[in-house]
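As promised in the previous annual report, we have extended the structural survey to additional targets. Below is the entry for Peptide methionine sulfoxide reductase MsrA.
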Amino acid sequence: MIKNKLALAVAIVGALGMTGAQGAETATAIFAGGCFWSIESDFDHAPGVISTTSGYIGGHVDNPSYEQVVTETTGHREAVKIVYDPTVTSYDKLVDTFFHLIDPIETRGQFCDYGESYTTAIYAGTDAELKVAEAGKEATAAALGKPVATIVAMAPTFWPAEDYHQDFWKGSEMLQNGLTRAQHYARYRVGCGKNGQVEAIWGKDAFKGLDGHA
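The corresponding structure token record, generated without further manual editing, is:
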């Protein structure tokens, strides 16, 4: 039944010919999966992804700053807006990949980051995308045998984060701690334990859909 629901939802997206499209050649997807540095890094390794933008979504403050969001008083989540080529990948594939690079059952945040801003969500741009995301959530719950904490909702305004957060994982700028942004991110990724926890949850399917681990 779950597979049938997912197939039907995917068929609806295909029949409508739109997946949050910005134009004839690109489409968008928005995922909140904990620290946006990591989600951006992950999806930069996904075939068909053209660009990624870190930002904030879901809160009650317009154009919030990082300093505001981390107080956990604005209601925002850290998220990544993805522009992709629908002739190379698809919305349902990106949804499936997303679930395989997070801890879907965690309610408090992700890995070493806790608070509402680090909780997981999929923000759909169309009713068809919403159905695909809901079907993906059901399939994930069935695969893990546990309830999935990830919220599925229509997308409110996405606010791009500050420039210094964009492409943080590969930045060459030197920080005050004597490390480049890329070096700082690599240390954070290991210290936060994301790779190990995702692999413990998903086994050989961890980071499914990526061109190697980020």
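DSSP finds seven helices and eight strands in the chain. Residues 2-205 form a domain with the Peptide Methionine Sulfoxide Reductase; Chain A fold (CATH 3.30.1060.10). These points will be discussed at the next consortium meeting with the crystallography subgroup.
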